[in-house]
Fold:
Amino acid sequence: MKDLKHISKFLSLILRHKPEEIGIHMDANGWVSVDELIEKCNTHNHKLTFDLLEEVVFTNDKQRFTFSDDYMSIRANQGHTVQVDLQLDAQQPPEYLFHGTVAKFMDAIRENGLLKMQRQHVHLSKDLETAVKVGSRRGRPIILKINAAAMHLDGYTFYHSKNGVWLCHEVPVKYIQFE
Ligand code: HQG
Structure:
């Protein structure tokens, strides 16, 4: 179990942030070759087999990774800081979405709204519980309720990642409920 978590964290690093860490080629849509991934992880002292990779993909708590239909390639479903085009279709969001953050960012969020910071999107969830978990990574969580349907009506685009995360490019202040 600990091994799987360790592998999942390392895969997040490679598939979302730093493919260059093991010198692997990532295509414009975020895919890397499964064979090359296994080979290069092993040469960089991160033991990996196809069976382990499959176990991580299918048991991962957040379903962070996906194989291509032919299992030749793998990519992260969201969360990238490297520039990739996930080719997600625009979707109509639910009326409200939630974002979990912490007090130290609140002044900036009140001023500028939610920005994607290092990542490619702002991450939102349809349920409060997920937002609490996301915020808790950094301390006592503060939950913001987003008027997603109103944003959508005003022309903002939303995407829904394969693992259920709602994504958008920004959330202007007027759509954020701060209480
Ligand atoms: C904050 C994890 C200052 C924002 C999670 C957040 C999620 C601002 C931080 C996923 C700001 C960015 C993403 C502004 C937003 N000024 N700070 N204008 N606008 N922020 O990690 O949403 O486990 O990039 O509130 O579970 O925390 O990696 O985003 O605190 O789903 O799969 O800037 O990462 O998923 O932090 O987390 P992040 P996030 P994984």
